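Progress narrative, work stream C.
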Amino acid sequence: MTAFLLLLLAHVLADFYWQPSHWVADKKEKSYRSKYLYMHVGVVVIASYVFLGQWANPLPALAIGLVHGIIDVVKIKFDKKGTAGWFVADQVAHVITIALTAVVLISTISLSLDTFKTWLYTPKTLAQLAGALLCLSPISFLVGILTRPWRDELDKLVPDANDNLANAGRWIGMSERLLIFVFVVVSQFSAIGFLIAAKSLLRYNDKNASGEVPPAYISKKSEYVLVGTLMSYTCAIVIAMAIKMFYQ
């Protein structure tokens, strides 16, 4: 675990703090022909070697640097628009590389797998994983179905209003439910009140930004968001409380 954390710290520093923006821009433009790609790989190797502290064994740091460079080239080749999906995939690939290197270093592959399986196949872990997944897409569909009448009413008031970012409400709802689920599981109920208060302030500011939209639409839109939010929060709290019954 120590080796993994040291290598992870080296990766975060090398990839996000010790890589100037003009290096990134040059890499995107020239890919493997960019000199900054190899300078970045060198920084990764040096950071990994220094943080790991195994002075007689530079091979792990060299291997991480080599794989890091390959992952970066693949990402540059296929990620032309800088999407979030490729960013996450890139970082996951780096973390997997670090984890595999750490496992090889401590030579406990079977022990690590057994430990992971032991952790995974427990009622507490399985219940929490199932609950978190339930709070995401399934509840989004449920809340969407329950609030459809009010959504249709808003469409009749202002057809083609187009006043929302694409899928923003869905992602906001999933993020809120996941936070509430975690808060209930760890018994931090006061944090839920802070989340509700923060969202209330945002909706208050939105309600006062009238512009050319009819006041009736703004009022109904605020009520629609409030109903959807309360439904979403209630579902997350109920799921979290039910999940806790499986391991308490």
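Work stream C, second folded protein:
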Amino acid sequence: MVKIGIDARLYSHTGVGTYLRNLLFYLEKKVTNTVFFYIYLLDENYPTVHFKSSQFIKRAVSSRWHSFSEQIWFAKKIYEDRLDLMHFTYFSYPVLYRKKFIATIHDVTPLFYKTGRASMKNPLTYEIKHQVFKFVIAEQVKNAHAIITPTKAVKKDLEKIYGQNYSKKIYPIYEGIDYELINPNFPALPASQQGEPAGRQFPVFKQITGLKSKMEDDSFFIYVGNFYPHKNVERLIKAFARIKERMKLILIGPADFFSTYLLRLINELGQKDRILFFHNPKREELVYFYKNALALVHPSLSEGFGLPIIEASYFKTPIIASDIDVFKELLKDKYISFNPLDEDDMQKKMEFFLERKLKIHSAHILDKFSFEKMTEETFSLYKSSL
């Protein structure tokens, strides 16, 4: 009997959480009689996460990532289970764990951009935490039996930072479309609204968003993601504020410290009726936004993969985004790119798109980007590591 552990403490989050939920969903379909998976979940997720297979064994833990408790008690917990292989699915891991493990390193953004809340609240405290984090990830790179990255670009970043000596143990494995987004069981739109051009299903938009008083016109761009500083949404807001065409920008993401900061900026620019937040959308609401937006605008300075741009491509939503290496790797020339440090360039590219209403999207996206294929490759890596 083989025992493999999977760190699923971020199960309920976006980003890494989407990665985890899809990995576990497809992995359960591939389990064999000789392999048992130990799934480590935070106490609050433990009661609500269920698996059909008896070979998926849940373990409740209270140790959060980037904590002292993680270094001691989480390490103790996984040592007690006497695993043959552990998969740490995030940057943070207990450095005292010395048995065989593989790690997924989603990006190197935290090494260069301080994404934590404390980066704007308590710089000294966050600086200390940031230095500890740099040590932890360096140990993870050094001690992992194998490292998974979501793109070749992240592999190159790791090679630049830590050296070519680690190159042979780094495996780029593309991610894909959340299985919950491609679920065919969403309620169907009324027949009168099916097949209408993007942005024309305004009554449904009103019903879904509840933004009735602010949506006199029905043309809109969307941004989907977090509002951390490296996401560069502040520049996007400033660039969009200069566009004269009557339309909206919908910022779709969490309600947090950073969105509150951006809301103040929106009010200062007199854009509260043009730039709107929509927090924590349901799956069917997110699908609606993708299907009806004129385009997705993604101004990020740094990414490891970029789930929203792949999701947008799946729903045939045109993309206007940063000219960073990761996006160029994923989309090639199938998007309109801009310099994310240049608000003028960002504005011009959005206006260029509006003038021509281009329909640029990457066809056959599931042929290249699939969480099911990702899981197959990850499972193969588990077996070869054993």
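The first strand starts at residue 2 and ends at 7. No further action is required on this item.
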